[in-house]
């Protein structure tokens, strides 16, 4: 049960004044569904705006407050395009106040032609035109704007504005309860951190490092504690010892010898499976390092030991790919394998469910459909989870509850994360690393090219496509407003489609899943030759014929992310090239990062360097979702504070293992606050 003291924080965001269904939607997009989420929606940064009399006195990229007169409204021809309110300053300079999505309705109302307004926002240039995208404030007289020259800037989604979200945050902060202190008193005093509620209030007011650190530390502590509870619980659970006699593995006819790293990992897994304590192991290996074969061997050990094995993939496409590969490799062993996804219906589905129930199907591959209530196993001994980073710990635990005795778990991830983050993310697991690539891989040529040479790159692309190869073109997601990124990607798509016609497809996060899937499938089958995408190219998708990867604004990506994207090419026999388009101005760190991409293809090394370089102070404009399991703590804080939090959690567990006593009770509140309450639930079970 969640402690009552937290109830005000877990009230729906709709209970805040001014949040109806219209606002609830964009809030949900940002992950803000409860009062707590709103209170924890910390500013990306703070702006100081400069009041200027006209645009000549401002420079591009600067935050300003300027008086303007509205001259004209221009709707874009396409529905997704921008809505421009044209205006002039006192000197007759033209500027476009640009709106995307629903915000254009507000603009129509608040900016009638002829109106004089003080406009606050960032002055940008788009082509030859000056523009201010989504002005932060509009006012009929300057006084109230000039009064608020230092303001938090929050990340937004369509339908939200800075003032709106600031108002909601203020309301949420008024509802903060008094919570007991969970930080160890010595630590708390030494760091001179503010108390929890004060820290939240300060973090919204200005750049307050101690407040931000305290909030990050809380999150790290909650995470460490929860993972330790999982681990401790796992030690107490009974599993089944699965000893393989090698009879099935011996019949495998692999077309290649295993690498040393593969052999070592299989050995580690085999030892774990032979124990009657359930395995909790993470297999980390770069894209292409050969995780599938390791999974196959593990599953065969389970089958040799008389149990069933299930492989869970995050998407339908991946599940199918795995099924095809595994079925081919399993051929000579005679071991049956089934595919089960949400799409299967009727008879076929029934017969698979029967086979799993009576044990006649020893191996199943699928999406989360394989763990629905209707699915029962005769004796599930091993669960393999591919692309683990797509699933949270709570899902891992849910899967583990499927067997009568806890099944062994092998989680696999291709995201090379630094050792320190491995601890944060997978602290409850043992780790095997595939740190050696199968021999004979073609290196991917990586080139860094200035964006003003985009035209040449398009010509290069044309030659590729003419030669029958396929290619990716990736646009970044970097702005505060997703719709602006989408607009940029759509514009690029339109331009490329203009040039290359129907063989171009587009994939981005705002498309319906069916449309996205259809586009992916056209590309995977080779009907489409060029895939334009915003960062999310389905993990693991394998198109060996794709040999060119172009990434726009490469400097805005994390190295690990660039590496993952680059890994989409270089999968066939032909030479592959990755083109990193960079902006005109690049910081020293930015240069260093892109140079590293040219220099190495070792994902683990890139991950470590990325952490070092980013920790060095240069924060990207945006947090990269999916990088870490944290919402509050950034990479720098993880590096500085995680070791301390981890140690504190360990002491708390050792001295107060049942989380009893005063600090134990406070720690429970913390776990619930960060929704690591599955940790608490395990406590009761044990
Ligand atoms: P990932 O780790 O990305 O899942 P895969 O398991 O899909 O990698 O393997 C990538 C490719 O490498 C596959 O075509 C696979 O058959 C091949 N492969 C795996 N292990 C070896 C090996 N030891 N020697 C040569 N090729 C291998
Ligand atoms: Mg794989």
Describe the structure.
With 686 residues, the protein is an alpha/beta fold. Among the domains are: 46-153, Nucleic acid-binding proteins (OB fold (Dihydrolipoamide Acetyltransferase, E2P)); 249-434, Rossmann fold; 445-600, Rossmann fold, CATH 3.40.50.300. Helices cover 41% and strands 18% of the residues. The chain is built from 24 helices and 22 strands. The strands form 4 sheets. A 7-stranded parallel beta sheet has the order 12-13-11-14-15-10-16, with helices on both faces. Strands 17-22-21-18-20-19 form a 6-stranded parallel beta sheet, sandwiched between helices. The protein is globular and about 85 Å long. The structure holds adenosine-5'-diphosphate and magnesium ion (MG). Residues 256, 258-259, 262, 285, 287-293, 414, 438 line the site of adenosine-5'-diphosphate.
């Amino acid at each position: 049960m969640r402690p009552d003291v937290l109830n005000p924080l877990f009230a729906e965001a709709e209970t805040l004044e001014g949040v109806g269904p219209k606002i609830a939607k964009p809030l949900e997009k940002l992950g803000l569904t409860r009062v707590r989420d709103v209170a924890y929606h910390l500013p990306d940064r703070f702006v100081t705006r400069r009041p200027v009399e006209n645009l000549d006195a401002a420079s591009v990229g600067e935050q300003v407050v300027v008086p303007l007169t509205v001259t004209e409204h221009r709707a874009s021809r396409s529905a997704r395009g921008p809505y421009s309110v044209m205006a002039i300053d006192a000197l007759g300079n033209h500027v476009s106040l640009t709106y995307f999505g629903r915000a254009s309705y507000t603009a129509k109302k608040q900016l009638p032609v002829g109106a004089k307004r003080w406009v606050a926002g960032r002055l940008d240039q788009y082509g030859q035109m000056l523009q201010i995208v989504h002005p932060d404030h509009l006012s009929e007289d300057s006084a109230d704007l000039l009064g608020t020259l230092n303001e938090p800037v929050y990340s937004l989604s369509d339908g939200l504005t800075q003032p709106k979200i600031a108002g909601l945050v203020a309301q949420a902060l008024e509802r903060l309860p008094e919570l007991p202190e969970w930080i160890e008193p010595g630590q708390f005093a030494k760091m001179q951190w503010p108390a929890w509620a004060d820290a939240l209030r300060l973090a919204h007011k200005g750049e307050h490092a101690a407040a931000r650190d305290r909030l990050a530390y809380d999150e790290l502590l909650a995470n460490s504690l929860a993972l330790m509870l999982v681990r401790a619980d796992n030690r107490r659970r009974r599993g089944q010892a699965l000893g393989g006699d090698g009879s099935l593995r011996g019949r495998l006819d692999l077309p290649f010898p295993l690498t040393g790293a593969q052999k070592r990992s299989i050995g580690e897994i085999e030892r774990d499976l032979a124990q009657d304590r359930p395995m909790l192991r993470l297999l980390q290996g770069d894209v292409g390092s050969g995780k599938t074969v390791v999974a196959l061997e593990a599953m065969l050990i389970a089958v040799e030991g008389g149990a069933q094995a299930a492989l869970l993939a995050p998407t339908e496409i991946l599940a199918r790919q795995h099924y095809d590969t595994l079925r081919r490799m399993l051929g000579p062993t005679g071991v049956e394998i089934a595919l089960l996804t949400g799409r299967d219906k009727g008879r076929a589905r029934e017969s698979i469910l029967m086979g799993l129930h009576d044990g006649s199907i020893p191996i199943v591959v699928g999406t989360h459909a394989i763990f629905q209530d209707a699915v029962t196993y005769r004796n599930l001994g091993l669960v393999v989870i591919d692309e683990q980073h797509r699933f949270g710990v709570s899902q891992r635990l849910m899967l583990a509850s499927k067997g009568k005795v806890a099944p062994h778990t092998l989680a696999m991830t291709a995201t090379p994360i630094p050792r320190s983050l491995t601890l944060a993310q997978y602290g409850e697991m043992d780790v095997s690393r595939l740190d050696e690539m199968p021999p004979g891989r073609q290196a991917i040529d990586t080139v860094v090219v200035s964006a003003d040479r985009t035209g040449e790159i398009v010509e290069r692309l044309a030659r590729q496509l003419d030669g029958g190869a396929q290619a990716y073109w990736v646009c970044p997601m970097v702005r505060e407003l997703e719709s602006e990124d989408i607009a940029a990607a759509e514009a690029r798509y339109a331009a490329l489609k203009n040039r290359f016609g129907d063989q171009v497809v587009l994939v981005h996060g705002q498309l319906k899943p069916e449309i996205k899937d259809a586009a992916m499938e056209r590309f995977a089958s080779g009907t489409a030759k060029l895939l334009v995408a915003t960062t999310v190219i389905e993990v693991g998708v394998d198109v060996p014929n794709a040999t060119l990867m172009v990434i726009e604004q490469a400097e805005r990506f994390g190295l690990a992310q660039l590496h993952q994207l680059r890994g989409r090419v270089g999968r066939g026999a032909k030479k592959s090239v990755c083109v990193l388009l960079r902006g005109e101005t690049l910081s020293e760190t930015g240069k260093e990062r892109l140079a590293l991409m040219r220099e190495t293809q070792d994902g683990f090394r890139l991950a470590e360097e990325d952490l070092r370089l980013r920790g060095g102070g240069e924060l990207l404009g945006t947090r990269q979702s999916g990088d870490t399991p944290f919402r509050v703590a950034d990479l720098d804080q993880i590096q500085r504070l995680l070791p301390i939090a981890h140690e504190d959690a360990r002491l708390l567990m050792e001295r107060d293992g049942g989380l009893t006593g005063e600090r134990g009770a406070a720690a429970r509140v913390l776990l619930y606050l960060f929704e690591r309450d599955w940790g608490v639930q395990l406590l009761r079970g044990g």
